[in-house]
Amino acid sequence: MRVTHLSLTDFRNYRHAEVPLAAGANLFVGRNGQGKTNLVESLGYLSTLGSHRVSSDQAMIRQGAESAIVRARIQHEGRELLVEVQLNRGTANRAQVNRSAVKTRELPRYFSSVLFAPEDLALVRGEPSIRRRFFDQLLVQRNPRFSGVLADYERVLKQRNTLLKSARSSGLRESQLGTLDIWDERLVALGSELVDARVDLVQRLTDPLISAYRSVAGDDHHPKLIPLLTVRGADVDDIDADGSTDAGAVTDSTGFSTADAFRQALATVRRKELDRGLTLIGPHRDDILFELNGLPAKGYASHGESWSFALALKLASAELLRRESVTGDPVLILDDVFAELDQARRRMLATAVAGYEQVLITAAVFDDVPADLTAHTVRIEAGAVVEPGPVVDPAADPEAGSEADRA
Fold first, then answer.
1. Per UniProt, where does ATP bind (predicted)?
2. Is the pLDDT of residue 308 over 80?
3. I want to staple 239 with a disulfide (CB 3.0 to 4.6 A). Which of 27, 63, 245, 380 is the partner?
């Protein structure tokens, strides 16, 4: 799969942009703050329905505009699709495929990309919610049906929390207890499906992660992913700040199915939930422990090791998608990545991504990027796309830098 043309209207700092893209590597280069990251962010949104930089869609609409449009022409094995999303202020977003309306949540079915950026260091060092979001986005990319499962789970969780808060403030009545049982069953049904899907995803990522880590770090530090499941006894709130936990807390010897374990756990914590007015267990409170050499990466890994782990996780995701997808390789996006690497690791990364059908790269300094990834280069200046041609090396510009583009 590759994008042959990207069109933006009122997206971030682009009033209008038309960007032809080639197979293989495409490099967007320019000073910081010109809009390089905005281009690749638009394609990341098209495949995940989220931004790697902000939580709100509104921030991606150009100031003063009421909507933004991202339109990409996709090609795979001679077949072309026109995939579009319109982000709106105050009303629901809209999507089209070949000019026919589709549900926005169905877009990942038509376009797949994997984006790595400096912000992804938070996958290793950040809060559990960041890791949950990453795994859930990958679930949706592999099977868009999970977008509906996640939305349904969030609705049930919200309704159940409302009931628990009401019971806490007014005292639990018999009628409320029956209603809580009904919400429990819905929570168990949807939550168990999510838990099992995440565990399966962790297992499938293991081998690609080990290979990817070795390819970008040059060493085998035995990267490992361990699900911490509240329905199986893990108390994520009690995990030490350095990421360590009691290994026994994440296992369950009863042999129960996830649904049965979930029901049992809900019964155990019901009094606590009524006291706090909050659902205390379920996939919304789970985590994934990242390990290197048998130690939690959070708190023990160096900056370079953490960076390599996060990058390897994204490359492993891309490898998993390319193995499973009928649409071929995902578009691989590297946002200001090479500035963080030394020459040896730049070459290793270039080798690791060389086999993908299309790779999009942003850089503030042209010379940061290995020469074999610069064949198709476009300069970006103040929200304007300069046609491919002779590139003025931004390294010669005193304002150029190597930090992440934040246009």
1. 30-37
2. yes
3. 245
Residue 126 is assigned to a ligand binding site: no
What pLDDT is recorded for position 55?
Answer: 84
The answer to whether position 118 is within a domain reads no
37 is in an annotated binding site: yes
Q: Is 35 annotated as a binding residue?
A: yes
Whether residue 33 is annotated as binding a ligand: the answer is: yes
CATH number, domain containing residue 69: 3.40.50.300
- Model pLDDT for residues 311-341, shown as the tens digit of each residue: 999 999 999 999 988 778 999 999 999 988 8
Compute the average pLDDT of residues 80-92.
95
CA distances from 41 to 115, 303, 370 (A): 8, 25, 22
Give the total number of structural domains in the chain.
2
Domain termination site, one of 293, 324, 355: 324
30 is in an annotated binding site: yes
Share of the chain above pLDDT 90, in %: 69
Q: Which of 270, 298, 324 is the last residue before a domain boundary? A: 324
Q: What is the dihedral of CA 195, 201, 204, 206, to 10 degrees?
A: -90
Answer yes or no: is 248 a known binding residue.
no
Residue 130 within any structural domain of the chain: yes
Amino acid at 275: D
Report whether 10 contacts 67 (CB < 8 A).
Answer: yes
Annotated ligand binding at 34? The verdict is yes
User: Residue 401: its pLDDT value, please?
Assistant: 39
Binding residue per annotation — 64?
Answer: no
Q: Could you tell me the residue range of the domain that residue 208 belongs to?
A: 124-324
- Quick check: 405 and 339 in contact, CB under 8 A? no
Annotate 367-399 with b (16+ C-beta within 10 A) or e (fewer): ebbbeebbebbbbbeebebeeeeeeeebbeeee
Q: Residues 314, 339: one domain?
A: no
Inside any domain, residue 117: no
The pLDDT of residue 114 is 95
pTM of the model: 0.86
Kindly state whether residue 179 falls inside one of the protein's structural domains: yes
